[in-house]
């Protein structure tokens, strides 16, 4: 897959000189600052996804997706429950970390 995937690590809040990208994955405390500047670099049908740790950040991000009239909006909470794996004895752990983070995603429509 490395011939089809390019990873960039930079502060994208001021925009990027890239274009016709398939997707953006953002792990920022303020993705709403970067999203308007990144949308022009997405191809039509391209996706943008964000990870945020709080409800307030998730809400602000999804509201921006709505204002920008993006499609296929999704907002999800992801929970983690470990497993003890053993031959003939796989079972879930008794304790679960109740919250790990929120993912929000949307697609740029043509």
Automatic annotation (TrEMBL):
GO cellular component terms, A-Z: tRNA (m1A) methyltransferase complex
Keyword list, A-Z: Methyltransferase, S-adenosyl-L-methionine, Transferase, tRNA processing
GO BP: any one term: tRNA methylation
Ranges for domain tRNA (adenine(58)-N(1))-methyltransferase catalytic subunit TRM61 C-terminal: 19-83
SUPFAM superfamilies in alphabetical order: S-adenosyl-L-methionine-dependent methyltransferases (SSF53335)
PROSITE patterns hit by this protein: SAM_TRM61
A Pfam family annotated for this UniProt entry: GCD14
Example GO molecular function: tRNA (adenine(58)-N1)-methyltransferase activity
Lineage: unclassified sequences, metagenomes, ecological metagenomes
Protein name (database record): tRNA methyltransferase complex subunit
Keyword flag Nuclease: no
């Amino acid at each position: 897959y490395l011939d089809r995937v390019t990873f960039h690590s930079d502060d994208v809040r001021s925009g990027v000189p890239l274009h016709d990208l398939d997707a953006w994955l953002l792990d920022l405390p303020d993705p709403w600052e970067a999203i308007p500047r990144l949308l022009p670099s997405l191809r039509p049908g391209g996706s943008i996804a964000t990870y945020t740790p709080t409800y307030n950040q998730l809400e602000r991000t999804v509201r921006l997706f709505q204002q920008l009239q993006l499609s296929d909006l999704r907002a999800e909470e992801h929970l983690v429950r470990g497993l003890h794996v053993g031959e003939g004895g796989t079972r879930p752990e008794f304790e679960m970390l109740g919250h790990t983070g929120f993912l929000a995603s949307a697609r740029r429509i043509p």
